[in-house]
Amino acid sequence: MFFSPTGIILVLAISAVLHSAFYSENSIYAQFQRCGSRWFNWTPVHKVIESGYHKVTKATGRPFVVCWWARDYLVMPPKYLHDVRTADGTHLNFFHSISDAFHLHTTVGDLYTARTSQRMIDVVKRGLNPLLPQITPILINEIDYSLEHLLEGGSEWQCVKAMELFAEITHRTATRVLICDDLCRNEDFIKQSMRFTKSIFVTALVIANLYLGVFRCLLAWPISLVHGWYLHKCMNILRPHVEKAIQECTADTKKPNAIYWTISLFPETVDKGHHDRFLKELLHSLWAGSSAPGGMITEVVWQLLINDGAIDALREEAREALSQHGWSEKMLNSLHLQDSFIRETNRLFPTGSMTCVRTVLGQPFQFDDGLILPVGTRFGFPAQAIQHDHDALDNPAEFDGFRFVRRGVDDRSVASGEKQWAASSVDTSYLPFGYGNHVCPGRFFAIRLIKLIITKIILEFDIKWDRKGKDRPTPINIEGQFVPNMQQKIYLKRRQDL
């Protein structure tokens, strides 16, 4: 009966009734205007968020509610960014939000909700970031290898799918430091780990878009089985390398990769009972550090091809910087045009329409104006809508690749050494990496990786496409997330005048 059309309809009807019964009209979400449907949006979520921003937030200054990843979220006005900026990460928690949205507990348990989840952040902050200048030659070496491995030799034009190429280059290069040098050229691990990282998003998408109602959390477990299989295949390949590193690691060991940083910063991870968690931390850090940069590079390349003269300007800047400083920190810091171009691309075409997504934990959170969010409240900020409509910028909805070069002429370094208008800096008009205490710690690595790959491509290759007109290839829009067009091809030819 239950597998007949009548049975399926009956199950869905019961699910809807139960969902309505459990949805309290006294909840925080019921106190604000809803944009889009609670059940299913025919309009893409990013359009619902954009519409809510203009019709509700700008008109009334109040939050509104959307259904995002099959859960209700408050979408907050930008005026609340100041309050969130200094809030403690354990009070307004990102990891809890991402675990819930993607149902990660089905494969990694409490990896994102236990106290030890902070280790993934600390490995980036205290292990990776201080060594970024020293690992630049390592990244360059891996980019060179990836280009040689993935592209044919010779001086003829080669046709490639851009997103596919840049995603693999970033994944291979990130593996070198976020896992280890033994596996970044292991073809089996690269294949399996790319399947693993892709399956996180695909699995979450299936769970969110099937009409499962109150059965969603229960059915998330069997739906996640394939993703879990990819995870364990990667763990099995990675395990002997971690065990070898544990045996060889001493106080003097200085290998520049996340395995050794984790062992050094958290000695308890050497205990065998912690190994599975250690492996999962490494693989999820690889997902976080490799997925977004590939898409960001692809979007930068789209804009380089759309905007006349942009490639020549960035190529000349890179050539001059390289001749003066070699592949060094000074060279990267001299790429002002490229840095501005990356920031502007990331501002207008971010990887998602929402940012600073958090869940209130422990105790209610009160904003300066008296608004109180109860424990368990999920919220975020409409990053794309804010970035397209900000008073701090002239013509914010238009692409101007070099706008931040002009703004940075009188830039003053802040205490952290960041520049206000750098691609890795954040402010209320630029939120793709989050904001305040909740800013992404891996943004410096991401921007460095993007700069190195873009510089290699424009210096060593001519680039073109057969696209007519000046329009951007249509991205894939899924649950308010943006993936560059997967089918768009570009043509690359090795330059002779290096």
UniProtKB/TrEMBL annotation:
InterPro entries: Cyt_P450, Cyt_P450_CS, Cyt_P450_E_grp-IV, Cyt_P450_sf. It comes from the Eukaryota. The chain crosses the membrane at residues 6-24, 200-230. Belongs to the cytochrome P450 family. The keyword Transmembrane applies. It comes from Aaosphaeria arxii CBS 175.79. One of its GO terms (molecular function) is monooxygenase activity. This is Cytochrome P450. It holds the Pfam family p450. Pathway: Mycotoxin biosynthesis. Heme binds at residue 440. Its cofactor is heme. Gene3D superfamilies: Cytochrome P450. CDD domains: CYP503A1-like. The keyword Membrane applies. Keywords: Heme, Iron, Membrane, Metal-binding, Monooxygenase, Oxidoreductase, Transmembrane, Transmembrane helix.
